[in-house]
Amino acid sequence: MRTARKVNAVLLAGDRRASIQLHHENKAFLELNGQPLLIHVLKALLGAELVGEVAVVGPANRIRGALEAVGIDERVIVVEQRENMIENFKVGYVASLGLDVAVPFWDLKGSGHDATPVLVAPCDIPMLLPEEVDEFLKRSNMHEYDYSIGVTSRDLLSLYHPREGKPGIQMVYFHVKEDLMRHNNLHMAKPLVLDHLDYIEKMYEWRYQTRFANIVRMLFSLLFNGWRLMKSLRIFILMQVSLYYDRHGHPHLSDRLRSLVGFNRLSEGIGNALGARVQIVYTHFGGAALDADNEKDLAVIEERYDEWMALQRSMHT
């Protein structure tokens, strides 16, 4: 086991800049099986063997009300949201260290907390299991890396695709030499050592890479951030063109291009952009990747929730 002790977590439940609302509501408070989405994720985090305390960042009064309704109070720190995702993460990280949230994040650099990692998860992955959280944490090597990004293979996620007349969720996958994969929304990081933490927010805001405008924004961002990002730019272009060919019925061309981008190059490219040593970590359940990013996917999760949760639990046993 690479993670030898418990780590604290930050659960992001904000509804300000770059957040996506469903049904004109903060996704965190939409109900699934009678409980808000954030409660499903929180229970998975608290149920994991390797998670200590969880700082939940969002509209504080609503979060406290949701916690009171289900009787959760221990090991949870409620933090009022700031103006965007990165600011929410920063204040959540400060709270996860047991410090007053008024302490400026960057004042902690060089204070002895630089090597303290934190787990980060969004509020819209209600099918997350404690076992998947522990698998990710056990595989995250925070001794040799600064940032671990969770992924899940298309081979596994195909179990959740539409099939046999039943609705499902079919995602857009990253194309690399070894696999087609999906980011699964789990992050593990030592944030005080990341040179370009603000770039994560840009990637989050432009995360829908099938939208042409977002692709252009990402390209120009890489171009104007200096020569050291040229490797990242090359990898980004190869992955985008490979994805384009795959979506337009040219799988052989797609495969030829993705053969030029391996895991090592991908992690190196992300590391160049963030100024960090980056590790890509597989999990093998699927729940962490099934985010409720739109009303259609949320409806599918509602319809197939019990069936898919049983499927995940069978993977563990």
Write the layout of secondary structure elements.
Elements lengths: L6 E6 L18 E2 L2 E2 H11 L3 E8 L1 H11 L5 E5 L4 H12 L21 E5 L7 H10 L7 E7 H4 L16 E3 L2 E11 L8 H8 L6 H12 L6 H18 L3 H8 L4 H12 L3 E5 L12 H22 L1
Describe it.
This protein is an alpha/beta fold. 40% of the residues lie in helices and 17% in strands. The chain folds into two domains: 198 residues, Spore Coat Polysaccharide Biosynthesis Protein SpsA, Chain A; 80 residues. The strands form two sheets. Strands 1, 4, 5, 6, 7, 8, 9 and 10 form an eight-stranded mixed beta sheet that branches. Strands 2-3 form a two-stranded antiparallel ribbon. α8 packs across α10. The longest helix is centred in the C-terminal third of the chain and has 22 residues. It is globular and about 55 Å long. About 7% of the residues have low confidence.
